[in-house]
Design goal:
This protein is of the alpha/beta class. The chain is built from eleven helices and eight strands. The chain folds into two domains: 218 residues, Rossmann fold (3-Layer(aba) Sandwich); 36 residues, no CATH class.
Length: 264
């Protein structure tokens, strides 16, 4: 099947995104399971399910009726989660926009995976662009999915405002795959931080670490991948300030947490 491909932003503008080069490195990506090595879809599916992302999606959205809805998945990668959502949620989703800034993921790998899972080509549009600039009218989507994506946003409030704009009244934002650190790990970090600061362990103070420590001092961002770690208070404050009610679920087995947000 042929899937509609769209360009919501040109490559020149996309290349200005700080993590563009990392996520568009074809050589690196070709070594990952998500590139479907040897066309082994069974191995790909097993690896994906072992990460628990679809299970987390189902638990968070257990009470949502997706019948005749239009949604979007932002930073959708190769669309394996999206294939499971369309096939196993209730098969009544009308359309899903899948947005990604990695061309080889969304326009090369994604069609192969969607075709493997026999996803109706009329239900999906594969878009290259930025999740800060959704080429959609106001109040047009019933739901949006961010899977292992929210923590990559340099400007999370800007992202939430753009999502709020395109969601319908009482539309849903489903955030899954966010990092979760249990109480024991947090306490260990809090105890070790002042010691490292005092003795300047590995030039600790020269790395912009502060005293007293903030959450990003304990769990510093990964600048190459763009990973940013937030405390529960930071999540809650961002959601509330941008017009969302939020519910949180912790998935300890996968060391993840997720959020179901509803537009107010």
């Amino acid at each position: 099947m042929k899937y509609k491909k769209s360009f919501w932003m040109d490559k020149t503008d996309l290349s200005q995104i700080r993590t563009f080069e990392y996520w568009n490195n074809k050589d690196v990506e070709s070594q990952k399971i998500w590139s479907i090595p040897d066309n082994d879809y069974q191995l790909l599916g097993n690896k994906f399910l072992s990460k628990g992302l679809f299970q987390q999606f189902k638990e968070l959205t257990n009470d949502i009726d997706f019948s005749n809805t239009t949604g979007a998945s932002l930073a959708s990668g190769n669309c394996i989660l999206e294939s499971f959502i369309i096939n196993h949620t209730n098969q009544e989703i009308d359309k899903l926009y899948c947005l990604e800034m990695s061309e080889h993921r969304i326009h090369h790998y994604a069609p192969k995976i969607l075709n493997h899972y026999q996803i109706d080509s009329q239900k999906v549009e594969l878009c290259i662009g930025s999740f800060y600039d959704l080429k959609l009218e106001n109040n047009t989507l019933d739901f949006i999915v961010l899977c292992q994506a929210y923590h990559h946003a340099d400007e999370p409030k800007k992202l939430l405002k753009e999502i709020h704009r395109v969601l319908k009244a009482e539309g849903y934002l489903i955030i899954i795959g966010e990092h979760f650190f249990d109480f024991k790990i947090v306490i260990e970090k809090i105890i070790k931080h002042p010691i490292k600061y005092i003795i300047n362990y590995n030039a600790f103070r020269d790395s912009n670490h502060l005293m007293p420590s903030k959450w990003q001092d304990l769990f510093p961002p990964n600048k190459m991948k763009g990973d940013i770690h937030y405390s529960i208070d930071e999540y809650s404050r961002m959601f509330k300030l941008t017009g969302f009610f939020s519910n949180r679920m912790i998935f300890r087995k996968y060391k993840n947490q997720g959020f179901l947000l509803r537009k107010t």
